[in-house]
Amino acid sequence: MDEAGFLATLPALAFQAVLVFARLGAAVMVLPGLGEAEVPAPVRLGFGLAVTLLMMPVLAPNLPEAPDAVGESARLIGLEVVIGLWLGGLARLVVMAMAVAGQAIALLLGLAQALVPDPELGGQGTATGRLLALAAAVLILGSGLYVIPLRALVESYGVLPVGEGFPAGAGAEAMAGAAADSLALALRLAAPFVLAAVVINVALGLLTRIAPQVQVYFIAVPGQVLAGLALLGLIMPALLGAFEEAARDAFLALPGLR
């Protein structure tokens, strides 16, 4: 291709690159591991641009030409952003189960008053919620699980081609199902602490009936915290293993990989 031909095709290539970046870049901003608040925005932006450059030669033949109307161009770009956020959000909901489980564990351990900034859930969160959220991000990056959502994102062009619309009903149903699965996973991860809290409270109730003169409150609070932290340290490897297995299964069920 000569210089004149290249310049003639440059506007179409630029529009196609914007379409690809709209989906890939929006997804990278929220994907587990890659889209964490601790990762600087320029790094996430650079990664999105790098993925776009890698995928352009593969996706360009199936991308639409630049439309003449500005409104149609905006519609196509907006649609790609929605699809990218939807796909990234489906994967993000899996990781949020760890933060929710940490919040529940803090309530059961008596640590709900010790709050720290939590970018995962917004505002102030508990220390255990922040700990498990960071552990989930490290696990996703360290085990290479982040590759599965990226592959699903690339394969999504076969399921949701550019310009053919977004199935809002099926998309909302998938998001609701992912949220329900995330909550169920959080409850499973926090189940040992629910059992421990029940046992501790029953024991304290029996102690109150047997020895009413004992100041149970001053025994219960530090004892519950110490027992809960010991239990957390004991089952942390098993908890991370259960989360890794659940996250792998959920990522493999993302649209494009089914």
Structure in words:
It is a multi-pass membrane protein. The protein starts with a helix and ends in a 6-residue tail after the last helix. By secondary structure, the chain is an all-alpha fold. It has helices at residues 3-28, 41-59, 70-109, 127-143, 147-159, 168-210, 216-252; strands at 115-117, 124-126. Helix content is 76%, strand content 2%. A hairpin with a 6-residue loop joins strand 1 (115-117) and strand 2 (124-126). The mean pLDDT is 81. It has a two-stranded antiparallel ribbon with strand order 1-2. The protein is built from seven helices and two strands, in the order αααββαααα. It has one domain.
Helix-strand blueprint:
Blueprint lengths: L2 H26 L12 H19 L10 H40 L5 E3 L6 E3 H17 L3 H13 L8 H43 L5 H37 L6
Antiparallel strand pairs: 1-2
Helix pairs in contact: 1-2, 1-3, 3-4, 3-6, 3-7, 6-7
The whole-number mean of residue pLDDT values reads 81
Q: Could you say how many structural domains there are in total?
A: 1
Distance between the termini: 40 Å
Helix content: over 70%
Shape: elongated
**Rg value:** 24 Å
Proportion of residues in β-strands: under 5%
The unreliable regions are none
User: Total helix count?
Assistant: 7
Which class of secondary structure composition applies to the elements? mainly alpha
Number of beta-strand segments: 2
Lateral arrangement of strands in the main beta sheet: 1-2
Compressed to H and E, one letter per element, the order equals HHHEEHHHH
Q: What brief labels describe this structure?
A:
single chain; about 260 residues; two-stranded antiparallel sheet; about 75% helix; about 0% strand; bacterial flagellum; T3SS_IM_R; FliR; cell membrane; cell projection
